[in-house]
Amino acid sequence: MSPPAPSTHVTPIPSRRRAPWLLVEVDDSAEGHHALVWALREAARREATVVAVSVLDAPGGDPLTGTSRMPPRTREAARDRLEALVLRAVAETGISGRTRTAVLERPVFEALDAALHGADLVMVGAGRKRVLRPALPRPPLRRVARGA
After folding, report:
1. Where is this region: Disordered (predicted)?
2. What are the structural domains of the chain?
């Protein structure tokens, strides 16, 4: 008997680059709806995931400065409203399976927004720290003529 032929199955090499994420603040406005629809279409084009976010403001009269306690009913109502808005956008675009939803409190959203506008964002987790910094702009590409 001859030895078995080697397998011709090739395992695909995973990309080093992670799939992109699109973070969209969604509210009841027409602009929020248009932003979500655009993000769904862009996610389909780029094979990305859309995170639709509803941002909650802290209730007034908070006895502890800098903290907030959002009632569970408020969070649940915000999530239900957000998921209804996402379903409406999915029905309009026909693009499904690319969305996640989250209800964030204002300080978390402000930290992400600050990182977008140039501030460093340090993510600290169990056993590691990472810094998200804005990318440095690339210098313009200079073309050199052949034979120069």
Report:
1. 57-76
2. 21-59+70-132 (3.40.50.620)
